[in-house]
């Protein structure tokens, strides 16, 4: 087993998770989807922590970072599934998956100095996002996106990218103090508390329909499995290859949508996707 293969398996898991999310959110709504997936993921992650014998060491000064990571991860899920509820995967996922470029920009604000290749990768991602967003007009014309809602789909996808970036930056900052798996578990706990509050605050806090529980549970399992695969790669040579390979999850979701949903992809849209996924791959490989 090598790091690249583990990363590829993680990409398949996350890509499948997002593909299934397109159906779940249209059936039960974003809030219920995030509630069920977060709960299932928390249960699976708790079981893995018990089996692996991991312990928790609470470092109070940095606990806010874990809370931030967990809450923004939930916000990312809500915006992603809200976008998938009204927009095609081939528009939503490339834009949502552009978060490494935003993370790199955050690093620049904090004093980092990217190389020329990294700057070019960031530029490619941003131009690609613009191309994919612009190409969405055809989806609106043929009815894949409700008329007049393309701007909302793009805005939600961009919000997903931003909130994932914040969640990952906060989680990475907390991991040295808490541990990687421990940070993930604590973040899920905070995220679960947040989504429960949101769910209860709704006028009708309905539970997920029983017929959708297997799919939602599977999504939670796929999410945790992908996370653990990337974590496990950290013990292998060339561990960064796992990060590079796992960043292909958006492409996996797009391919699944093309195969099973026959989602149309215009030449401009395809060009934008290549720029986004290529730029993300370069940024991931430079970590």
Polypeptide structure, described:
This protein has 287 residues and is mainly α. The chain has one domain (3-285). Helix content is 80%, strand content 0%. It has twelve helices and no strands. It has helices at 3-28, 30-52, 63-86, 89-96, 99-109, 116-142, 150-178, 180-201, 213-233, 240-246, 249-260, 267-285. It is globular and about 55 Å long. It starts with a helix and ends with a helix. The relative contact order is 0.24. The mean pLDDT is 90.
Major pleated sheet: none
Compute the number of strand runs: 0
How many separate structural domains?
A: 1
Mean pLDDT across the residues is 90
What's the multimeric state?
Answer: single chain
* Cα separation of the termini: 22 Å
Query: Which segments are poorly predicted (pLDDT under 50) over 5 or more consecutive residues?
Result: none
Structural class by secondary-structure content: mainly alpha
Element order: H for helix, E for strand: HHHHHHHHHHHH
Helix % is: over 70%
Based on CA atoms alone, the radius of gyration comes out at 18 Å
- How many helix segments? 12
Beta fraction:
under 5%
What coarse outline follows from CA principal-axis ratios? globular
Task: For the structure shown, list the relevant keywords.
single chain, mainly alpha, globular, 287 residues
Write the layout of secondary structure elements.
Blueprint: H1 3-28, H2 30-52, H3 63-86, H4 89-96, H5 99-109, H6 116-142, H7 150-178, H8 180-201, H9 213-233, H10 240-246, H11 249-260, H12 267-285
Helix pairs in contact: 1-2, 1-3, 1-9, 1-10, 1-11, 2-3, 2-8, 2-9, 3-7, 3-8, 4-7, 4-11, 4-12, 5-6, 5-7, 5-12, 6-12, 7-8, 9-10, 10-12
